[in-house]
Prior knowledge:
heterodimer; A: alpha/beta; eight-stranded mixed sheet; 13 strands; B: alpha/beta; Rossmann fold; 2 domains; four-stranded antiparallel sheet; 11 helices; binds adenosine-5'-triphosphate; binds adenosine-5'-diphosphate; binds iron/sulfur cluster; binds magnesium ion
Amino acid sequence: MTAPLISVKDLTLRFKTDEGLVTAVNTVSFDIASGEVLGLVGESGSGKSVTAKSLMMLNADNSVYDEGSKIILNIDDREHDVLSLKRPAEQMIIRGGAISMIFQEPMASFAPAITIGDQMVEQLMIHSTMTRAEAREISIEMLTRVGIPEPAQRFGQYAFEFSGGMRQRAMVAMALSTKPRLLIADEPTTALDVTIQAQVIELMKDLVKEFHMSILFITHDLGVIAQTADRVAVMYLGNIVETGTVRQVINSPAHPYTRGLLNSLPKLDDLDSPLTPVPGDIPSPLDRPSGCIFHTRCVESGDIAEKCRTEIPVDSIDNASHQVACHLARQGDQA
Amino acid sequence: MSDVLIRANNLSVHFPLSRVGFGERPVVRACEGINIEIEKGSFFGLVGESGSGKTTLGRAMLKAAPISNGEVIYTDDDITYDLGTLKGPELKEYRKRAQLIFQDPYAALSPRMTVRDIIAEPLEVMGLTSSREETDTRVREIADLCRLNLEHLRRFPHAFSGGQRQRISIARALVSGPKFIVADESVAALDVSIQADVLNLLNKIQRDSGITFLFISHDLSVIAHTCDFVAVMYLGQIVEAAPTRKLFSETSHPYTKALLSAIPSLDPDVRGHAQRLEGEIPSPINPPPGCRFNTRCPQAQERCRSEVPEWREMSSGHHVACHFSEELA
Ligand SMILES: Nc1ncnc2c1ncn2[C@@H]1O[C@H](COP(=O)(O)OP(=O)(O)OP(=O)(O)O)[C@@H](O)[C@H]1O
Ligand SMILES: Nc1ncnc2c1ncn2[C@@H]1O[C@H](COP(=O)(O)OP(=O)(O)O)[C@@H](O)[C@H]1O
Ligand code: SF4
Ligand code: SF4
Ligand SMILES: [Mg+2]
Ligand SMILES: [Mg+2]
């Protein structure tokens, strides 16, 4: 078996704040194979973005990784221990080289006073031995690929001159121009209309196929996940509570939280079923519940509520690909 | 026939921009020739892409955007208001009856006011209560309806989650006892669980109190679950309007069809069947001639580029503006 492109093992990330140490990610493990799309879902604040930023060492200065946290990137038969890359020169392999990131707010990833084109060229020249002319040619070609009309003119414009949809596509173009092995897309379509979202999703799928790259696709929209991901990881309050293939997780969700998310979705083909929200609010990361992290909102704990309140559920493995952190699943309740 | 609470007749809202050089002054035609009737006690949905003019239409119905052409008429029991000319004490009365909710958890809630003061402010500004006790009683009543307790009322808004902030905004809009509420959703989607909770709360308020809602969203599946009537907006115009079930079972406008097919299916085995809409919504400064949708419409024909489609009734309560609706069905 070939090693996964990236392997995250027991990642625990805390932030030093005035109110104390905040646990944002707790013993998270997942792999992404070459050419695979892993969808990461969860409510806002569950830790999706900070998990993603860990892969590129982009978290804020007040972050602390626990001993034992490991992120291994396998490129060209070489293992890179990401969290141990301390010097900027060593980090070059990840930042914009092997890994690229697309953000939810495209304005954030373009400098306001530099043209879109110059930023693309700049990035390409850092990561390759290209000449400026070559970099310009590739940039315009990428803008064309993502469906930006009149790319040569657009090349000389600033981000604020682009519409929301165009900015998002320009960001995809910039992120893919260095031909990264892993693309991290953090809510790339959340701020877009469904019509434009459909275009961007289509575009990302095409490019993934063409460049054979892997994607970590972060969203809170299960419909978008169903349409893009091969496998899914569901995150709640810094923990991954369920992972499986997209069919396993969407068609037979094994964790009560995953079922809760699905029950609160409005479905067009079933207008009569009520929308059932997950009761209560997500707890503060400063005040993480004991036992099962989800017990304060779980409607399924019933008889075993006491166990849920005190004992941390261990991942149970239904089969090689479907893992659930819930006491019920351990009782063999779920297929 | 049931009563209409508020109607727009041939309503246009134009925003003049500053002139560039010589020539005509450019005008943003945010709403153009809109006809809608919102029945008393209904949950009326308005859906469309960003920039289609939903917020502007909602604001015109609250007399918070200029009415450039046509009229907006509000009728309730004993009174009829023509919003275009409304002023003085009557406008003050209308402000009590018509309220706005931003469906954005991060919308401005003053960080230096307690939740109690945020909810009480409209009462004080409009002079609706005569003592602090009366204000407190009213605030508590409304807070309770929105599942906010006494402890919440003493705190400041930054300490609240997205869902709780939404319920604070709703309480603030309800406190003056409105008859008509415009609930405007921003594009950035909420968490599904919070969204479901807020939708259920708004629906409950409508059932219990009979308040009429104009519910603005970019998400057709949300609209389908919440509203009893839907109007679809594109580039400043309503292109289709119908009772919710009819809109989905007898979709008659190509734009409505496209919006529907762009919703990502929850079924991993149904991938990539979206009827893709190319390009983006054109500028409302120079809308395309003929049918405004013709630059993106997969069904467009020569006639669509010159002739404006008529707003016509397909069946009872179902209106559409497309030359070729019959051929779509
Ligand atoms: N005060 C104003 N001056 C000039 N143009 C305006 C003004 N208000 C709105 N517009 C323009 O009118 C059009 C309709 O805007 P509106 O905010 O009503 O759209 P919307 O459908 O609510 O969009 P969204 O889904 O993004 O909220 C847009 O082109 C907008 O830029
Ligand atoms: N620099 C930081 N300092 C303190 N807390 C932070 C910092 N960055 C993120 N967090 C906290 O980490 C948690 C997870 O955040 P995030 O990954 O952004 O969530 P998501 O992307 O799932 O919405 C949140 O509680 C957030 O407030
Ligand atoms: S372990 Fe208990 S509380 Fe946690 S998800 Fe399972 S049933 Fe619910
Ligand atoms: S009138 Fe023509 S362009 Fe407009 S929606 Fe109908 S078919 Fe399309
Ligand atoms: Mg995030
Ligand atoms: Mg709006």
